[in-house]
Write a structure and sequence with these properties.
Blueprint lengths: L1 H20 L4 H15 L4 H5 L1 H18 L3 H6 L1 H7 L2 H18 L3 H11 L4 H14 L7 H27 L6 H31 L4 H21 L8 H15 L1 H29 L9 H22 L7 H10 L5 H6 L2 H4 L5 H30 L6
Helix pairs in contact: 1-2, 1-14, 2-14, 4-9, 4-12, 4-13, 4-14, 6-10, 7-8, 7-15, 8-10, 8-19, 9-10, 9-19, 10-11, 11-12, 11-13, 12-13, 12-14, 13-14, 15-16, 15-19, 16-19
């Protein structure tokens, strides 16, 4: 396993830096490293068996850092569009796949809806780092564009994963449960409430007990792990989102102890270098290109057609905002990348024995390949052209 860890970090670092030199997003090189290592079978099966846990750890670090960089005052200003971004674009994309997959791929409508719930999630692992960079550069921050996208992307997965559980139950012969739909807002609200409480308690602890910033990072990271674990421990009928709790914890810590939160965020930034490599190389290693088989062309048709529905959904979220057409276009582009959720659940329908499993897995693989790196690249090159930079 140590050899696999070394291969992941070194190959991800080398190919990531190479991609950077070519003016491509570094994650392009990291994903390529994972594809190479996975296809060659060079990664220890023990490493791949804990891949999901390692990717979740990296995602938790991303969302914690995102929370530490968000101000409650900013969220209040962009509250309605950010809330709408958490479910309308994904909902529109699910509708798009449900309409397009039956004629193009021969699925029935329930299977198509299940495929849509796999493809509908935006990847916070790709989107959040890019938005944090824009916040640091003060690009688009005059209208709180990166903050809005960051907050929406962090909650989008909750909606999609709940919809996935609903449609997978229908496809396996289960009954539709209205409780699952009700659990979406309940999970977001309860997760936010618990996260805010944890952040306030941490702010009190840090103000009364002198600790080095490195120890504060350890404590905050441990609390984040506990919050995500709490979600797994609770029964299904109790709605709770650990990932929303993690980002809410960071936001409330920034609210109550802004100076300490900024220092802790810097520490997270240095840790993120290794976590980023591990995350994207492992995502690439999970991708089985052979799963696309001979259906890649109609699958591409479904993906790009569904993206058009997603763009319409983003446009709906922008109604009655002060954003210009250029800024709205940027929001559509930035909300395109997919990776982590598709890598995590793309193979689940196949493991469940569903006849549509291979098709859905192929869709997840191709969606990662055509949206993750290209989406990050387009976000990076269009931001200077479409967003205004605040004067420092």
């Amino acid at each position: 396993m140590l050899l696999s860890a070394a291969l992941i970090l070194l190959s991800g670092l080398i190919l990531g830096e190479t991609a950077g030199k070519l003016h491509l997003p570094k994650l392009t090189g990291m994903l390529a490293a994972g594809l190479i290592l996975g296809s060659l079978g060079w990664l220890d099966p023990a490493m791949m068996s804990i891949s999901a846990d390692l990717r979740k750890i990296a995602l938790i670090m991303i969302l914690t850092r995102a929370g530490l960089n968000l101000k409650i005052s900013d969220l209040k200003k962009c509250g309605r569009p950010a809330l709408l971004m958490s479910f309308i674009p994904a909902g529109c994309e699910i509708v798009g796949v449900t309409l397009l997959a039956p004629p193009l791929l021969g699925l029935d409508y329930a299977e198509a809806a299940l495929m849509g719930s796999v493809l509908g999630a935006v990847s916070p692992a790709v989107v959040v780092p890019g938005m944090l960079t824009l916040i640091e550069e003060k690009r688009g921050t005059d209208k709180l564009i990166p903050q809005m996208i960051l907050a929406g992307a962090s909650m989008d997965d909750v909606f999609v994963i709940v919809m996935f559980s609903v449609f997978s139950g229908i496809c396996t012969g289960g009954d539709f449960s209205a409780l699952s739909i009700v659990n979406i807002p309940v999970a977001i609200i309860s997760g936010a409430a618990v996260g805010v409480l944890c952040g306030i308690l941490l702010a009190l602890l840090f103000s009364r007990v002198h600790l080095r910033d490195s120890l504060k990072v350890v404590i905050l990271l441990s609390v984040a792990f506990l919050l995500v674990t709490l979600e797994d421990c609770l029964p299904d009928f109790i709605g709770f989102s650990g990932l929303v709790a993690v980002i809410a914890c960071g936001i409330s810590l920034r609210w109550k102890a802004p100076e300490r939160a900024v220092r802790v965020s810097r520490k997270y930034g240095s840790m993120w270098t290794a976590a980023e490599i591990m995350l994207f190389v492992l995502v690439g290693a999970q991708v089985d290109i052979s799963a696309a088989g001979a259906i890649w062309l109609p699958v591409l048709g479904v993906i790009f057609g569904a993206l058009a529905f997603r763009f319409i959904g983003v446009g709906i979220c922008m109604i009655k905002t002060k954003l210009s057409l250029r800024e709205r276009l940027f929001c559509m582009i930035a909300y395109m990348p997919k990776a982590t959720v598709q890598a995590a659940i793309g193979g689940v329908p196949l493991a469940m024995g569903l006849s549509c499993g291979n098709t859905i897995l192929a869709g997840a693989v191709i969606a990662i390949l055509v949206t993750a790196a290209p989406g990050a690249f387009l976000t990076g090159i269009t931001a200077p052209k479409l967003l205004h930079r605040e004067e420092t």
